[in-house]
Amino acid sequence: MWLRNVLMAGLLLILGGAAALAAALVFPEWLDHTRTWLKLEVAEKKEEEKKDLPPDDEIELTESLKNNLGLSLESLVSQDEYVRTVAVPGVVVERPGNCEHLVTAPLAGVIKNIHLTPHDRVAPGKPLFTMQIVSETLQTGQANYFKTKRDLELKKLQVQQLEKPYKDGVIPPARMLELEQDLQRLETSLDSICHELRMRGLTNDQITKAGKGDFLKEITIMAPDPVPNHDVDHGIVLEANGDKHDPKQPFFYEMEELKTLVGEYVQAGQTLCRLADHKTLFIEGRVFANEAALVQKAAKEGLKIKAEFHGDGQPLVEELRLRFFANKIDPETQTLQFYVLLPNTFEELTHSGKIFQLWQYRPGQRVRLHVPVDSLKKVVVVPSDAVVHEGPEAFVFRVGSSQRVVNGEKKEVKILERYPVHVLHEDSRECVLAFEKKMNGRRIAMNGAVQLNWVLKAQKAGGD
User: Fold this and answer.
1) What is the value of pTM for the model shown?
2) What is the Cβ-side half-sphere exposure of residue 237, based on CA atoms within 13 angstroms?
C-alpha cells in the first residue's frame, strides 16, 4: 500500500513538470512574467539594503571618528588678499663681528685661576681669569716708573729748598735753570712710562700703586664690554616684531669655548677663551639667479619675510626684514646669499647654583624662508592638511546632515561630505582656495583630509 502511494506521487510530479514545460513552450509570455516578478523581488530587497548605506561621497560624522582623528571643525572665512610666497632654503648663522668675542692675554704670564667653565654666563666687567705676571718688560716698566717718580719728587724738593737762596742771590740763575730743565725731563719721562704701562693693560689705580712701590704681580682679566650699538640694533628688531625692548635688560655673554688650563704659561696676545652672544643672529638664505630678482623685489618694497624651522615644532616667525645681499655669486653652487636679521630669546636654567641660557634659535639650524612675490585677491586660506588630492582633483570635507534609514526608521545624522575645490597656491603649511559664495561660512574639517579619504574608499569597497 505504502509503495503504491509513493509511485503515484512520483507519477503525478512527473506529469505536473511535463505539463508546466508544455505550457511554457506553448505560452512563453507566462515564463517571462514569472522571471520579471522574481527580479523585482530581488531588486526590492537590494534597494532596502542600500537604504542603510551612506552615499558614495559621504561619511557619517560620529564621535569616535572625530576623536580618533582629532578633527578640528571650523567655518571658512574669506580674506581680501593673500600674499603668495616662494620657499627658499636657509640656515641660522652667527653675525660676524657681533656674536663671537675672543679674550686674549694682555701680558705673558701663568694662569692661576679660571673663574668660569664652558657654557657659563658672565656679565661684562666680571672676572674670567687670574694670571700671574712673568713679563720682564712689565716688571721693568713698573720699576722705572717707581724710580722716575722718586727722582721727580727729590728734584722738586731740591728746587723748593733752593728757592730762598736763589731769591737772596746766593744761587746763580744758571743753576736754577738747570734744575728746572731736569724737572721737566723727569716729568716727561714719567708720562711716557705711565703711557706704556696703560698700553700693557694696567689701570690708573694699578699705576698709582706701582708709583708707591706696590708692584703688580698678578692681574684679573675681565669680560669685555658689548659691541657698540649692538643692543640698539636688537631693540629695533624687537620693536618691529611688536615686542617692547627694555634697555635696562642685563646683558650676558656665554663662554662658548675655553682654550687654556690652570698653570699654563701663555704669551701676550694668546687666545684664552671664546665668548658668545646670540641675542641677534642671521638667517643666511641662498637663491639661484632666476629667484634673485624676486627676493630683491621684496627687499626694495619692504615686504616682510617669514621663517619656518624644520622639525622642531616651533611656530612660524613672521615680520622679518632682509638686511643685505652678498655682492658675489658662489662659483661652486651658483647661488646668491642674502641675510635676514633674527631676534633671539632664551630661557634660564638653574643647576647647582649656576644659571645657564637655553636659546630658542641656534647657529646651524635649517630654515625655510618664505619670500613674498605677489598677492591673490578674495581667497580662502585653510591648512594644507584640510585638502586631499586625487590626481588633478582636490577635495575638502565639509560638515552637513543627511536623512538615513536605520532599522526601518528615518534619522538625521551629521555627515562629512567630500567637496571639490580649486587650489590656487599651496605650500607645506597653507592651501589657498578660490572663493565660492556657497562655501563661505560652511564648516569643514581643518585636518585629517587624507585619513578621511581613506575611510571613504574603505566604505565604498565595503558597500560594493
Assistant:
1) 0.60
2) 22
